[in-house]
């Protein structure tokens, strides 16, 4: 067995705990964090978490699929790609009134942010007025707004911001070296370009990825390294555990060990210390204890409500009981 890596083996080990967020991480440094003894890693991540956040607080977002299925991209994990036979039917873009009614319910259920997802490769200008109407309607309810609509041009990002969009979700999904094993209809650079358009329009970014797609630890470190060297770290950083979808190329992927998932959360917390790290898809198949370990390691956001986009999520009662048992409460939000 290799000798354990000690914190003193890492360059400037205290910097990520007491210093400002860094944007000059190397891939080797991120990989070295993954190799730390588990308890040491979680302890350090918990320290950093406390440096920037109240660790009893959790941010709560709720998803709605406003345009389901029939997507032109071939993301190997996705139930909504037209390339795979998953049983998900293609539907039309919902009307603003339907979306706003769902957002009212989400708010009543405790959601703080409402995230509208569309199974699109990119936003078409013809759909912009309808999307803008749903965004401004949701914003008027006093909820934070988020959307994930595929690739955007800079002028479209500005239009969404003007409609009242606070966050745009656009994930890098995995490390650059593994990307073409997951999707071939777009490039890593396409994703980075949309993220730049979102930042330039003055919106907050929500960007993370998925574990459990057959990637190596190096690929997981590669994803977190890419996020850590962005000009601005993501404001929200979702870490999804693959929801395996029958009929997709990744539907039979071996599940990732729970302790490895916790390592992913902890390293995300260390390299992007001020990001709100979301324990995203996959909580449905995680124990309460595993989720608690993720919160200890620095996760401070979840999706609430019984459904994600097309798959299921713990229901409100289950989550309320979990958070009560952990002594956690909704994150204090900045005034809108
Ligand atoms: N079409 C847009 C796009 O891809 O950016 C927005 C919707 S897409 C469903 C949003 C993100 O959800 C993906 O980038 C991926 O990270 C995540 N996701 C999709 N299917 C998933 C699955 N089966 N398990 C875990 N995460 C998934
Ligand atoms: C993200 O990172 N995870 C969410 C949200 N951003 C859009 C989506 C999870 C989808 C899980 C599979 C499904 O429900 O279809
Ligand atoms: Fe389309 Fe998004 Fe699914 Fe990829 S993840 S197939 S872009 S809906």
Task: Give a written overview of the molecule.
The protein has 336 residues and is α/β, with parallel strands linked by helices. The protein has one domain: Aldolase class I (TIM Barrel, Alpha-Beta Barrel). The protein is 38% helix and 14% strand. The chain contains twelve helices and ten strands. Strands 1, 2, 3, 4, 5, 6, 7, 8, 9 and 10 form a ten-stranded parallel β-sheet that branches. α10 links the parallel β7 and β8. α3 packs across α10, α6 packs across α8 and α9 packs parallel to α10. It is globular, with a radius of gyration of 19 Å. It starts with 14 loop residues before the first helix and ends in a 6-residue tail after the last strand. About 1% of the residues have low confidence. The structure holds S-adenosylmethionine, 6-(5-methyl-2-OXO-imidazolidin-4-yl)-hexanoic acid (DTB) and iron/sulfur cluster (SF4).
Write the SSE topology.
Layout: H1 15-18, H2 27-35, H3 38-52, E1 57-67, H4 96-108, E2 113-118, H5 128-139, E3 144-148, H6 154-163, E4 167-169, H7 179-182, H8 188-200, E5 204-206, E6 209-211, H9 217-228, E7 236-241, H10 258-271, E8 276-279, H11 288-296, E9 301-303, H12 316-326, E10 329-330
Parallel strand pairs: 1-2, 1-9, 1-10, 2-3, 3-4, 4-5, 6-7, 7-8, 8-9
The structure holds S-adenosylmethionine, 6-(5-methyl-2-OXO-imidazolidin-4-yl)-hexanoic acid (DTB) and iron/sulfur cluster (SF4).
Explain briefly what this protein structure is.
With 336 residues, the protein is α/β, with parallel strands linked by helices. Helices cover 38% and strands 14% of the residues.
């Amino acid at each position: 067995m290799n000798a354990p890596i000690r914190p003193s083996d890492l360059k400037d080990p205290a910097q990520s705990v007491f210093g400002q967020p860094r944007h000059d991480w190397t891939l080797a440094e991120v990989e070295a964090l993954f190799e730390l003894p588990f308890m040491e890693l979680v302890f350090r991540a918990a320290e950093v978490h406390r440096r920037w956040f109240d660790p009893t607080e959790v941010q709560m977002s709720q998803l709605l699929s406003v345009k389901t299925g029939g997507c032109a991209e071939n993301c190997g994990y996705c139930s909504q790609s037209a390339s795979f036979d998953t049983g998900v039917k293609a539907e039309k873009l919902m009307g603003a009134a339907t979306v706003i009614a769902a957002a009212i319910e989400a708010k009543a259920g405790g959601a703080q942010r409402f995230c509208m997802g569309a199974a699109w490769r990119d936003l078409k200008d013809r759909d912009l007025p309808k999307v803008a109407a749903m965004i401004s309607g949701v914003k008027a309810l006093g909820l934070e707004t988020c959307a994930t609509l595929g690739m955007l041009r800079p002028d479209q990002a500005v239009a969404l911001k003007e409609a009242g969009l606070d966050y745009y979700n656009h994930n890098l999904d995995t490390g650059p070296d593994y990307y073409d094993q997951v999707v071939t209809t777009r490039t890593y650079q396409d994703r980075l370009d949309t993220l730049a358009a979102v930042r330039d329009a003055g919106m907050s970014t929500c960007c993370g990825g998925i574990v459990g797609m057959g990637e190596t630890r190096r690929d997981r470190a590669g994803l977190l390294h890419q996020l850590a060297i962005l000009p601005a770290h993501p404001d929200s950083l979702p870490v999804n555990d693959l929801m395996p979808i029958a009929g997709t190329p990744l539907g039979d992927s071996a599940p990732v060990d729970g302790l490895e998932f916790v390592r992913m959360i902890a390293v995300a917390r260390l390299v992007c210390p001020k990001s709100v790290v979301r324990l995203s898809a996959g909580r449905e198949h995680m124990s309460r204890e595993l989720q608690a370990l993720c919160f200890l390691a620095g996760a401070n956001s979840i999706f609430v409500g019984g459904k994600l986009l097309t798959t299921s999520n713990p229901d409100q009662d289950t989550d309320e009981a979990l958070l009560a048992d952990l002594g956690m409460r909704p994150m204090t939000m900045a005034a809108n």
